[in-house]
Amino acid sequence: MAENQRANLARTIFTQYRDHCGLFWRIMLPVVIIGIALEVVVFFSNVTRTENYIDDVFRENVYTTVGNVNTISGVYPTLSLPKKDASVESSEPDVSWGILPIPYFTSTDSEGITWNWGINVHSFGYGPAILLLLTLCPLSLAVARISRSSQVSEVALDVTPLTAREMWRQTGRKAFKILIAFVFFILCVDVVSYLNGLVSWLAPSLVRGLPIELVGILTIVYQAYFLVTLSLYNSCLILENNSIIGIFRRSHALVSGARLRFFGIYLLTGWIASVVTSVLLGVALLAFSMFTPDLAQIRDALPPLKFLSLFIGGDVEVVLPQLLSVPATVAILIVKGLIATFFVPIWAILTTHLYLQRADVEKEAI
Predict the structure, then answer these.
(1) Number of domains comprising the chain
(2) What is the residue range of 242's domain?
(3) Any residues with CB less than 8 A from the CB of 52 and at least 6 apart, and which?
(4) SS3 of 117, please?
């Protein structure tokens, strides 16, 4: 029975995405353009801030700003100690490989390449791409309408074509509640991190006395619990009439009794997203390296056999000896933004159908 549910859910996600991808992307397009533009602005602002930090703190230029290229995160500036041998610096960037999501382990091979094994799934972090999460409400509304029209397609009202403008117009009626709920969700999920920072400031000796592994595990468990428990809040917000607190209580009530199932589905979805992201970004980086001399080291880091590891959850990180050129940086950020955008409708379809399933189960129980 559970296998049939998973198969039906996967089939529904594929079918609805295929049949309505144009609508979904039109809904997301304004936010995508803003998010990618902000991503570019934030990147170069971080470069300027990093270089100013080096000038202010390290008067002797101990560190330098270099480019970090990653098949999960795209590209971002970082600090690095300059190497003494300039020829080595230009020909041998630092390369790190990871296999996901096996528990964390690190080793270094004979060639000096570090392999990291660790739990890591695709996420937005707190960059401008997180704005894409605001499109989940109009997307969930569209998915719910599509599902309803497929069930009663003979009714003329339900076969009226959906438009991105209509989805945003109806979402706009709850704009204030959406923003407040979004901020509240972020605070709930990350409250442990905030408390850890507060305790580290008020009682640093207490934090130093705890094993860092224990703190990390507790943080992961807490965040996983609340991410699963509150995962339906967007659907509860846009498809029901509840208060801010009522939205999250409703999500908690719907998830209760199926929390492990939800966790398994979300973990698998996140891991698949990581694999697809690594493969697509790896292909894009290899394509860019054919035309951009700054990315020539990528070809050395991604030979054919090691590139195949991306299909089983591999992740490669290359710390280049210098920052990438502006066109190459912008191109990578655009590709990364488009890949992240690709997964948003999948998440909207998944959570909306889980919401509809649990709501139906609740009605049957009543």
Answers:
(1) 1
(2) 2-365
(3) none
(4) strand
